[in-house]
Amino acid sequence: MSLALPDPFQASPALDLEKQVVAVLKKIYDPEIPVNIHDLGLIYSVNVADGGSVQVTMTLTAPACPVAGTLPGEVERAVMSVDGVSDAKVELVWDPPWNPGMMSKMARVMLGM
Question: What whole-number distance in Å separates Cα of residue 71 and Cα of residue 89?
């Protein structure tokens, strides 16, 4: 009898789904800054549970951001569009507050920082 052990180098389905969710988030741009919301540092976490339920924790550049009422819904719809996602919840948080240091290196280069 052979015991099949999981390959530690093989991506888990949740990890694959997380990568697909991040890819779709990189297609959503802040309307005031020409950088996607992921590289801008607005996405704090993407958690994928068994069964394809996805929880996204995000922030905005400021509480008075003009898209505060619409961007979380846009993120939720984009996440739901990913094959394998069964449910998506977006939590908008203000702590820690966003700051330019949260941007990816690529975003800082794009913005000339």
Answer: 13
Sign of the Cα torsion 32, 33, 37, 41 reads: negative
- pLDDT at residue number 32: 82
Cα dihedral value 13, 48, 56, 89, nearest 10: 110
Q: For residues 48 and 21, is the Cβ–Cβ distance under 8 A? A: yes
pLDDT at position 14 is 67
10-residue averages of pLDDT along the chain (113 residues): 53 80 95 91 95 96 87 96 96 94 92 86
DSSP 14-70: HHHHHHHHHHHHTT-B-SSSSSBTTTTT-EEEEEE-TTSEEEEEE--S-TT-TTTTT
Residues paired with residue 45 on neighbouring β-strands, in sequence order: 57
Give the pLDDT of residue 63.
Answer: 86
Determine phi and psi for 4, rounding to 5 degrees: -85, 120
- Tokens representing residue 52 in the block: 């394809």
Chain position carrying tokens 């309307």: 31
